[in-house]
Amino acid sequence: MIPNLFSLDQRVALVTGAGSPTGIGFASARLLGELGARIMITSTSERIHTRVSELDEIGIDARGSFGDLTEEPYVDALIEETVKAFGRIDIVVNNAGMTSVSVPGESEAGDLASLPTSVWRASLRRNLDTAFLVSRATLPHMKRNGWGRIINVSSVTGPVMAMRSDPAYAAAKAGMSGLTRSIAVDYARHGITANSVAPGWIATGSQTTDEAKEGSVTPIGRSATPDEVAAAVAWLATPGAGYTTGQSIVVDGGNSIAEERS
């Protein structure tokens, strides 16, 4: 039996960016479901239905939707669909977005002087606007319920440190930290918390060889698993985290506090 401080029984969680079987989004959805929440997951493709089937197989009540979270009409329809399916919405995990340097064929990388305006704006839309649109559409429902959790999956890149030739992604994720704090201040009186989780090197299916090498020189000596990031997300969603708001939990194996790498 799950203690009440960690139970999400009767709660409803929306997790964006959960299409990958090895990603942080799906790991978070699975753990929230195991704690008792009913789950709506999203991605940009029909593979989300496979993830729903996998959650169903382990006894989690789940639904799925796919579309473009940078488009306001789709976001509004998604929230309406979630409330229609489950009657309420209590938890949002804004995980949609991607790193710009680890995806094959991605063209965001480059120093600021060479970065096209169109690429800058596309990165902000994908990595920051999605969190803004989903949170804005969800907050009225949470406010009526008098309880809510918004958890933004950010990054150490931007809020804590920076990588070379990655200004757009860093700016978007730093903006997510400001958005998180603003929501926390404005909605605390309504029983709603807003926090972020800032992952470092994570061993997802899309991790490159170079990223794995960087993970090996963190103080812990390896990259994190998606489940280890999901554990931080899940705690922030629980009743036990009700007095924690406006904060960022860094999950990076101590990488951002170590002065030496050798």
What does this structure look like?
It is a single chain. This protein has 262 residues and is α/β, with parallel strands linked by helices. It has one domain: NAD(P)-binding Rossmann-like Domain (Rossmann fold, 3-Layer(aba) Sandwich), CATH 3.40.50. It is 40% helix and 14% strand. The protein contains 7 helices and 7 strands. It has helices at residues 24-34, 48-57, 72-86, 117-145, 167-187, 209-216, 226-237, and strands spanning 12-15, 38-43, 62-66, 91-94, 148-153, 192-199, 248-251. Strands 3-2-1-4-5-6-7 form a 7-stranded parallel beta sheet, sandwiched between helices. Helix 1 packs across helix 7 and helix 4 (117-145) packs parallel to helix 5. The longest helix is centred in the middle third of the chain and has 29 residues, at 117-145. 47% of the residues are buried. The model is unreliable at 100-106 (pLDDT under 50).
Which helices and strands, and how do they pair?
Elements: E1 12-15, H1 24-34, E2 38-43, H2 48-57, E3 62-66, H3 72-86, E4 91-94, H4 117-145, E5 148-153, H5 167-187, E6 192-199, H6 209-216, H7 226-237, E7 248-251
Parallel strand pairs: 1-2, 1-4, 2-3, 4-5, 5-6, 6-7
What's a concise summary of this model?
The chain is α/β, with parallel strands linked by helices and 262 residues long.
CATH architecture: 3-Layer(aba) Sandwich
In helices, the fraction of residues equals 40-55%
At the fourth level of CATH, the homologous superfamily is NAD(P)-binding Rossmann-like Domain
Total number of distinct structural domains = 1
Bin the strand percentage.
5-15%
